[in-house]
Amino acid sequence: MSALPIAVTCGDPAGIGPELLASWLKAHPEQASSVVPIGPADWIARLGQGIAVGPKDFVTRPGKPDDAGQLIAIEAMEMAARGASGARFAAVVTGPVNKKGLAGVGYVFPGQTEFFASRWSGDPVMAFAGGKMTVGLVTWHIPLSGVSQAITGADIRRTVLALISLRGKLGDRRPRIAVCGLNPHAGEGGLLGKEDDAIIRPAVEALRAEGHEVVGPLPGDTVFHRHLQGEFDAVAAIYHDQGLAPLKAVDFSTSANLSLGLKHVRTSPDHGTAYEIAGQDKADRGSFDSAMRLARLLSA
Q1: CATH top-level class for 132-253?
Q2: 105-133: buried (b, 16+ CB within 10 Å) or exposed (e) per residue?
């Protein structure tokens, strides 16, 4: 296990990110020295530890996002990314952000996954684990109308290999990976779409020829049930909601978001800022706990 601490960014200061870490520290005081919070000065002062970013006179207002808070969220990410690159942090756990709010202050990335990929290099894979299911996404932050044109055999290969590596680190000796089809019934032999047979199947067959235990394309309406029954260790979903709708229905409070394929480990809760309950100590900490646990495990 790495002796370096884990950087934990505030995310949007107006969201539930700050209180999730405060609650975690209260529940795990013996692990306080293993984390370095990064966020607004008033939050850092209340925690009694960490690195303050942004204006010193900034006041955190739960449930009331503003541009200053968005800029602090970006600065916290930048500091965490630099710290991991400089061997100061073993991993980074990021608080939830407001993608639209970030875009409003000039943030050019669709999400945090793409940001850390730009700072650390590598080919990222967005994945989710920590509960009953492990899911990787071949594509993620693109409109549904563009998915069929965006998927490639290389993307499928990268996602499957990242899932194999992840499941190996989580204890599977020979990970079994299922790959979803794009179309209903995985295309029904071409009757319901050509992408499954033209793009997905050849990528799966190539991986199998290399000795990997991979099957697909399989119909998305049954593959997740089979995963839950233990037939597969992970599922590669072709697009965002294909994978995350079933995962969050089952594992909303237990899974965490993982950025695989990068030089350093980055995890985060699998939910958003939840402005409507921010500052009320109502937030479920389960996903955050998984993010913290996986960050330490994967950076060991």
Answers
A1: alpha beta
A2: eebebebbbbbbbebbeeebbbbbbbbeb
